[in-house]
Write a structure and sequence with these properties.
There is one protein chain. The chain is of the alpha/beta class. The protein has 2 domains: about 290 residues, Nitrilase/N-carbamoyl-D-aminoacid amidohydrolase; about 325 residues, 3-Layer(aba) Sandwich (Rossmann fold), CATH 3.40.50.620. It is built from 19 helices and 20 strands. It has a 7-stranded mixed sheet, covered by helices on one side. α1 packs parallel to α2 and α15 crosses α16. The relative contact order is 0.08.
């Protein structure tokens, strides 16, 4: 539960229709298993104490009495479990019968939520038996449930983790135009539990899956769905135990139909809270008309069942990754095409180094010119060898330009830079910041002047990771007339270039060698013809910095939470001291280099994380990092 991590579980226990004692025992066993798994919330199916398929037996007091006895037995059997348990049963209240979800904690029934929309179509004839939920909140009047609140407007909030607010709806409630969960989420619920008995037919699993996933996205919540298992099957209906956990539009875990009938997943309340805070269109009803009931869970650290990906910007699904890469290239090309057409130009000028960033910029530019119906020869690709340029990168740059049909121009900047050193009184043997930045600025000056000369536009190549770290020379490679890579992190750029290599066999060899080349600005003299200056040795691995960037900007996580996730993701790859070292570098550089981002050229956003000063990221150029660094210092003390 620390850091907002909560484990949700859904189970379809073994069942005998109308055997409440047996079913209660199976539900209690499932609760014990879920508690052993570290689950904080467990959902079980609709009418799970009796079975959904009882038909007119629901009119028998004998069955209804047994259901209440079963509920009491579950309370007693699970009283010591650190778990919020949600079970289904029929209950009589004020002379009516309701299909209810009962919410249990520490051996007590906290509340009862009746189904708002009994299914009454096809083989479902619930209105013969059950009344729809009534308005408002009432109190149960009889038996061991006396005084327990019953109604649809109930929220259950954890005392130790107030961001965990649970609400319930029952099966068909999800499928109607305005599900009760809409109002639950607006009232503050972060986890919606659905107890269901949805029978299996062709195509139903996909429809059910998309409904759960999309509903969690729309409500910015976690959605926990528990469905009746095969033991419920009878007569014309077959049930399959399709259990799911979704969060913010992502299906985190699923017990597929006719599968294990138990699933669990870890959700992050921090993500839900962040997106609701960020999306000012998400309404706040203040919980009017709702009753909030507290419950207690031990405050313990959730041992995440699945470590986070080392590359959170990159999907691990190969098909989706290919789709994302195509989308990114199309976004880049469309943005550049629009800008060129708007200013009435059909020439693009860009510097080509034989590195990853300029390679992607050239690939995107070539796609833009193809879409414009303009010849690739209108792309002026310029290599600008300096003191650190190696034969390998120069050859790759030239070969790529030739294969794409771009016009290739080589301008050696060394003599011009030496003349500049002479003018300002700087020694060429002094390999300092001036030595490096003079080359970067000379390259930008040359490219911009060529763009003016050719009545064209200079296309920038800098990427999102470099912008985050400020790893760019101010008014050098930091500046352009349109930055096609500005919204793409380095880890994702690798994937896009690799995607193009796989799609275009004629480019595969040169693109693969570019991918294998160490990342470098090549501003320091080469050693024996090899790159002497490797970026990741200086500022740290981009794999780590992209990880820090994603969780800091996309979710606004604290340094402590980012560090915890990094330890899990990079266990066996980087030790904790190394993680702390580069995380400290990330925060220091991120805050110190904002002034470079405050005056960026336009460039297309491709994802939720962007550093554009015009929309996605507004930050004072002189903001202090003191609070973040203080938290990092506390982490270092704990490591010691």
């Amino acid at each position: 539960m620390r850091d907002g991590f909560i484990r949700l579980a859904a189970a379809s226990p073994a069942l005998r229709v109308a055997d409440c004692a047996f079913n209660a025992q199976q539900i209690a066993d499932a609760a014990r298993m879920a508690a052993q798994d570290g689950a904080h919330v467990l959902a079980t199916p609709e009418l799970g104490i009796t079975g959904y398929s009882c038909g007119d037996l629901f009119q028998q007091p004998t069955l209804l009495d047994a259901a209440e006895a079963g509920l009491r037995a579950i309370c007693e059997a699970t009283a010591s479990l650190p778990l919020l348990l949600v079970v289904g049963l029929p209950l009589r209240h004020r002379g009516k019968l309701y299909n209810c979800a009962a919410i249990l904690s520490e051996g007590h029934v906290l509340g009862l939520v009746p189904k708002s929309h009994p299914a009454n179509h096809g083989s479902f004839q619930e209105l013969r038996l059950f009344s729809p939920a009534f308005g408002g909140i009432e109190r149960f009047e009889t038996g061991f449930l006396r005084g327990v609140p019953i109604g649809t407007q109930l929220l259950f909030r954890c005392d130790e983790q107030p961001a965990l607010i649970v609400a319930a709806e029952v099966c068909k409630d999800l499928w109607v135009p305005a599900p009760p969960s809409i109002f639950h989420a607006v009232a503050g619920a972060t986890v919606i539990v659905n107890l269901s008995a949805n029978n299996e037919t062709i195509g139903m699993a996909n429809r059910r899956r998309e409904l759960v996933r999309s509903h969690s996205a729309r409500l910015i919540c976690a959605y926990l769905y528990a469905e009746s298992g095969p033991d419920e099957s009878t007569t014309d209906g077959v049930f399959a135990g399709h259990n799911m956990v979704a969060e913010n539009g992502a299906l985190l875990a699923e017990a597929k139909p006719f599968g294990p009938q138990y699933t669990t997943a870890d959700i992050d309340l921090g993500r839900i809270a962040h997106d609701r805070l960020y999306d000012t269109a998400f309404p706040d009803a203040g919980g009017e008309g709702y009753l909030t009931i507290g419950f207690s869970l031990p405050l313990r650290e959730t041992a995440l069942a699945k470590p986070p990906s080392q590359s959170p910007f990159v999907t691990q699904n190969p098909a989706k990754l290919a789709e994302h890469c195509e989308t990114i290239l199309n976004i880049q090309a469309a943005g550049l095409r629009k800008r060129l057409q708007h200013v009435g130009q059909n020439v693009a000028v860009l510097g080509i180094s034989g590195g990853l960033d300029s390679t992607l910029a050239l690939l995107a530019t070539a796609r833009a010119f193809q879409a414009m119906g303009q010849p690739a020869a209108n792309i002026l690709a310029v290599t600008l060898p300096g003191f650190g340029t190696t034969g390998r990168t120069q050859a790759n740059a030239e070969k790529l330009c030739q294969l794409l049909g771009a016009t290739l121009l080589t301008i050696d900047i060394r003599d011009t830079v030496l003349s500049h050193f002479d003018a300002i009184g700087h020694s060429e043997s002094q390999h300092d910041e001036v030595f490096e930045n003079a080359q970067a600025r000379m390259r930008t000056l040359t490219l911009m002047d060529l763009a003016n000369q050719k009545n064209g536009m200079m296309v920038g190549t800098g990427d999102l990771s470099e912008l985050a770290l400020g790893w760019a020379t101010y008014n050098g490679d930091h500046m352009s007339m349109y930055g096609v890579n500005a919204g793409i992190p380095k880890t994702l750029i690798r994937k896009v270039v690799a995607h193009e290599a796989a799609q275009k066999p004629e480019l595969q060899a040169v693109l693969q060698d570019i991918l294998d080349t160490p990342v470098s600005p090549e501003l320091l003299p080469a050693k024996d013809g090899e790159i002497a200056q490797q970026t990741e040795d200086i500022v740290g691995p981009y794999l780590l910095h992209d990880f820090f960037l994603y969780y800091t900007l996309r979710w606004a996580f604290t340094p402590r939470k980012v560090f915890r996730l990094a330890k899990l993701a990079f266990a066996g790859t980087y030790d904790t001291a190394t993680l702390w070292k580069w995380m400290d570098v990330f925060y220091r550089r991120f805050f110190a280099q904002q002034y470079k981002r405050s005056c960026l050229a336009d460039g297309p956003a491709v994802g939720r994380v962007s550093l554009s000063p015009r929309g996605a990221w507004h930050m004072p150029s002189d903001a202090s990092a003191a609070v973040w660094l203080a938290e990092l210092a506390e982490i270092k003390k704990q490591l010691a």
